[in-house]
Design goal:
InterPro entries: AAA+_ATPase (IPR003593), ABC_transporter-like_ATP-bd (IPR003439), ABC_Transporter_VariousFunc (IPR051782), P-loop_NTPase (IPR027417). This protein is of the alpha/beta class and 307 residues long. The protein is built from ten helices and 16 strands. The structure holds adenosine-5'-triphosphate (ATP). The site of adenosine-5'-triphosphate has 10 residues, from α1.
């Protein structure tokens, strides 16, 4: 069961008095592309660094292939966490060159693919002799993507890989990722805030919210399980009674309710033909509804509503 799985059991983490992770349970299975999504500051980077033994959990356990990850060289060499690069390190500028990062990655990862790294460097136009502090944000992202893809690590984690990339390069990255995935069947975990465009790439969505995994589900199943039901107030209320409501938007005598179907549940769209409009919900909206905090249920505050 645990063969080549990365298993996280009841992991907690606090920084001072701030409890970021409150008991995370998560199993990463081989041969999938996962998307880790969550609001700013929810603890995505913290969780990813703990999963890969780069940060210590407060409590709980992380195992790879049944063995604890912490200070376990065999497990760690199978896990690549290609972090976002920063133009500054400690108290100064990051004067390391791209080639120095690539060289240490080549030493660390036993499955490092030098020919593939060279292909990506050429493809992305990376100047290997350029210092990180002299690179723009997009170029730094391309260095981390190169390390991640060329690492050959069975479980490869990319933290906000498309940050700073223009739409062409984001598209190129997704295509390269899918190509490598098809070729190697490695497991990838991506954290991203650009949810809608990643939806076609991510097989499974993991939503981290309020310190725990709020949801882990096949992306298409999640999208298929949510529906907007739109129409006259009383008809909508009648139609959606008994369904989980994720959101309600009132527009005069009309309303639009987002419902979430439970496994095996369906909505009788035909029965309401001519009375109600039933449509798909964008993944980004599903994410917004599922990660709202107390007090945010009524949507966003408007400057026009000030008293
Ligand atoms: N080394 C640290 N010391 C103190 N607090 C930290 C440290 N690292 C992270 N935090 C805090 O922990 C919380 C979670 O941070 P983290 O970077 O894991 O979130 P995130 O979900 O990756 O955020 P984002 O989406 O904005 O990148 C934040 O409030 C952050 O300020």
């Amino acid at each position: 069961m645990s063969e080549n799985c990365l298993v996280c059991t009841q992991v907690t983490k606090s920084y001072g008095k701030k409890e970021v992770l409150k008991g995370v349970d998560l199993t990463i299975e081989p041969g999938h592309i996962y998307g880790l999504i969550g609001r700013n500051g929810v603890g995505k980077t913290t969780l990813l660094s703990i999963l890969t033994g780069q940060n210590r959990a407060g409590a709980g356990e992380i195992t790879y292939n049944g063995q604890p990850v912490w200070e376990n060289e065999t497990a760690l060499s199978a896990l690549c966490f290609s972090r976002e690069l920063s133009p500054t390190i400690l108290f100064g500028q990051n004067t390391l060159k791209a080639k120095e990062y690539l060289k240490s990655a080549a030493c660390f990862y036993p499955n490092w693919d030098a020919a593939y790294a060279d292909f990506l460097i050429k493809e992305f136009g990376i100047d290997k002799n350029k210092k990180i502090c002299k690179m723009n944000k997009g170029m730094m992202s391309l260095v981390t993507i190169t390390i991640a893809l060329a690492s050959g690590a069975p479980i490869t984690i990319l933290d906000e890989p498309v940050a700073g990339l223009d739409v062409y390069m984001r598209d190129r990255f997704y295509a390269l990722l899918l190509e490598e995935y098809a070729r190697s069947n490695r497991t990838f975990i991506l954290s991203t805030h650009i949810i809608e465009e990643a939806a076609n790439v991510l097989e499974e969505i993991i939503i981290l919210n309020d310190g725990v995994v709020r949801l882990k589900e096949n992306t298409q199943d999640l999208i298929d399980s949510c529906l907007y039901v739109n129409g006259l107030d009383e008809v909508v209320d009648r139609a959606v009674s008994g369904y989980e409501r994720l959101n309600t938007e009132q527009m005069g005598r009309h309303k639009m309710v987002c419902i979430r179907l439970k496994p095996g549940q369906s909505f009788p769209t035909e029965q309401y033909r001519g009375e109600l409009t039933v449509s798909a919900v964008p993944l980004q909206k599903i994410f917004v509804y599922l990660t709202r905090q107390a007090g945010e249920e009524n949507g966003y505050a408007s400057f026009n509503d000030r008293t």
